[in-house]
Amino acid sequence: MDAPAELRDGELLLSQWSGHDLPLLQEAASDPRITRITAVPRDYSSDAARGFVKARLDAAARGEALSFTIRALESERAVGAVNLSTFDWDRRTARIGYWLVRPARGQGLATRAVGLLTQWAVAELGLREIEVRVEPTNHASLRVAEVCGYVHVGEITDAPSGTTRSLRLLRLRYRATPYA
Ligand SMILES: CC(C)(COP(=O)(O)OP(=O)(O)OC[C@H]1O[C@@H](n2cnc3c(N)ncnc32)[C@H](O)[C@@H]1OP(=O)(O)O)[C@@H](O)C(=O)NCCC(=O)NCCS
What are the pLDDT digits (tens) for 27-50? Predict the structure, then answer.
């Protein structure tokens, strides 16, 4: 899998993580809504943040995951992240995850980023299904997924990627060939 350095539409830029994104990780580290469900280090240090960035780039180089920061085109800095992981190339499936720092929420950025990465993954990686796992009380995330065409397929008790604590999670799936 060739990992693109960036994806964009008319308003949004998704870029591979870099050393410039440490301030984003510092801001995200202070938000338990992000650290409880992602691998973002909750005790921020520049070493931990560099380790996070390196792990994302290494995973992309190994073809295990694709992680991007999210930035509005007119903006100087990234305000969130969206990623694909858990690829199963026989079944052509993967899992998607996403988060934004608090001031960037409620502006449609997450919906746009998830839509962009979903459509690119279907068109360019040939994925047939993409799953997202969302806590039942996370109404904003459920709405993001639903607006992007993900439909509810069940639930599971599992630890989100990069974490160890099991949570009850709703499973929603995007299908390249839509549900009848
Ligand atoms: C989930 C998250 C990425 C959504 O970001 P966002 O900026 O609110 O997303 P958007 O602006 O694209 O809005 C998404 C939709 O949710 C709706 N929404 C926002 N907050 C809501 C809430 N508390 N309850 C119900 N709907 C809500 C918006 O109105 C919008 O719906 P619409 O398209 O019908 O208008 C953001 O809240 C976040 O980073 N949360 C912490 C990390 C997280 O939970 N990640 C997802 C893990 S599965």
Answer: 999 999 999 999 999 999 999 999
pTM: 0.94
Q: How is the beta sheet containing 80-88 ordered, strand by strand?
A: 6-8, 12-16, 66-72, 80-88, 93-100, 129-134, 167-175, 151-158
Q: Which residues contact 158 (CB under 8 A, 6 or more apart)?
A: 133, 166, 167, 169
Tell me, in angstroms, the distance from the centre of ligand 1 to residue 120's CA: 21
Distance, CA of 78 to CA of 100 (rounded, Å): 9
Protein residue with least CA distance to atom 3, ligand 1: 99
Q: How far is the CA of 173 from the centre of ligand 1 (A)?
A: 17
168 CA distance to ligand 1 centroid (A)? 19
- pLDDT tens-digit map of 64-102: 999 999 999 999 899 999 999 999 999 999 999 999 999
Domain ranges, ordered by start, for the chain = 6-127
For ligand 1, is residue 150 a contact (CB within 6 Å)?
no
d(CA 172, ligand 1 centre) in Å: 15
Token pair, residue 15, equals: 């870029």
CATH code 3.40.630.30 for 6-127: yes
